């Protein structure tokens, strides 16, 4: 008869993943860490091979054969899910009548620690697994710190990149962003239209009511332009009161004319600032990428600029398309 009081207490301290079996292969006692892996399934009293599947050596099929080979190294796994893998070593009891099977996780220790929320308290004080757990914990802390730092760096880089392409007053794209977008559209041979919009009488607002009023007008104008364009269109402030609107995939003059008409109509409405009316209007010139055999950003911008100044010469608060005649470029 196995004296569990003599053996079990000692094994709990030295080998918290032991299995004490009798000579019939029935589990008499298990270590606290091993039982923790199956908290709702008492192992004592069960057949060893009902709990564990013997993977290697393949020549061993029964507990009797297993107990007949002291020092035998085993590869085991749980019969049920999750099928955690173990390494084992058999040591016969000095008094006979059974054996101790000492188990360890081997290379699957990290998975076991994660799956069962094990801590250093679940291992023997001299087990090298504790050292590994400390290393894993330190590595995890270092990896988390590195990940956090990388996230902060990425956020800072994104913020810096966004700032580099954003007009700080209006939140619109700036000239640098416009140049980048135009270069991309041209390199991909995309069809697009470019609208050059200038606020008329803006200088008089600044002179009469001050720069704060002028800033307010620019911000309200930016809001109107965003509301009248699509999410994949580009609205950029490229100068004091100058804006460029880029419409990707759009070359329909009727649609473009409708957008320009709505912009002019809304921008002509007085804007109230500190009780005073800020009155401006808008002149707009538009050029199409399809008007150029070999589109170049400089040429399209120049064409839209010509159309804009044709609108200004026509009395302002109106829209003109750029067109090419046989002998010279004109706007009309």
Describe the protein.
- With 332 residues, the chain is α+β, with helices and mostly antiparallel strands.
- The protein folds into three domains: 116 residues, Beta-Lactamase (2-Layer Sandwich), CATH 3.30.450.260; 38 residues; 157 residues, Alpha-Beta Plaits (2-Layer Sandwich), CATH 3.30.70.270.
- It has a six-stranded antiparallel β-sheet with strand order 2-1-6-5-4-3. It has a six-stranded mixed β-sheet with strand order 8-9-7-12-13-14, sandwiched between helices. Strands 10-11 form a two-stranded antiparallel sheet.
- The longest helix has 37 residues.
- The N and C termini lie far apart (110 Å).
- The C terminus is likely disordered.
- InterPro entries: DGC-Regulatory_Protein, GGDEF_dom, HNOB_dom_associated_sf, Nucleotide_cyclase, Rev_trsase/Diguanyl_cyclase.
- It holds the Pfam family GGDEF.
- This is Diguanylate cyclase (GGDEF) domain-containing protein.
- It comes from Ruegeria halocynthiae.
């Amino acid at each position: 008869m196995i004296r569990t009081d003599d053996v079990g207490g000692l094994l709990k301290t030295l080998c918290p993943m032991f299995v004490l079996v009798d000579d019939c292969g029935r589990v008499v006692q298990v270590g606290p860490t091993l039982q923790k892996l199956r908290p709702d399934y008492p192992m004592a009293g069960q057949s060893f091979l009902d709990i564990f599947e013997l993977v290697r050596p393949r020549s061993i099929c029964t507990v009797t054969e297993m107990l007949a080979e002291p020092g035998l190294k085993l590869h085991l796994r749980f019969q049920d899910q999750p099928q955690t893998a173990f390494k084992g070593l058999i040591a016969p009891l000095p008094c006979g009548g059974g054996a101790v099977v000492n188990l360890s996780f081997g290379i699957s220790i990290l998975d076991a620690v994660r799956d069962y929320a094990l801590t250093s308290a679940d291992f023997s004080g001299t087990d090298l697994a504790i050292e590994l757990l400390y290393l894993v914990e330190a590595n995890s802390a270092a990896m988390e710190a590195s990940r956090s730092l990388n996230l902060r760096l990425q956020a800072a880089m994104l913020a810096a990149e966004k700032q580099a392409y954003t007009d700080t007053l209006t939140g619109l794209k700036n000239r640098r962003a416009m140049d980048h977008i135009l270069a991309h559209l041209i390199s991909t041979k995309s069809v697009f239209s470019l609208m050059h919009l200038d606020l008329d009488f803006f200088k008089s607002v600044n002179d009469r009511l001050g720069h704060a009023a002028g800033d307010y007008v620019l911000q309200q104008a930016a809001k109107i332009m965003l509301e009248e364009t699509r999410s994949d269109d580009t609205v950029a402030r490229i100068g004091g009161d100058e804006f460029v609107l880029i419409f990707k995939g759009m070359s329909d003059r009727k649609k473009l004319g409708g957008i320009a008409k709505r912009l002019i109509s809304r921008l002509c409405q007085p804007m109230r600032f500190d009780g005073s009316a800020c009155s401006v209007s808008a002149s707009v010139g538009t050029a199409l990428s399809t008007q150029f055999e070999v589109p170049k950003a400089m040429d399209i911008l120049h064409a839209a600029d010509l159309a804009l100044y044709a609108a200004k010469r026509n009395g302002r608060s109106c829209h003109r398309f750029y067109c090419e005649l046989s002998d010279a470029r004109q706007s009309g």
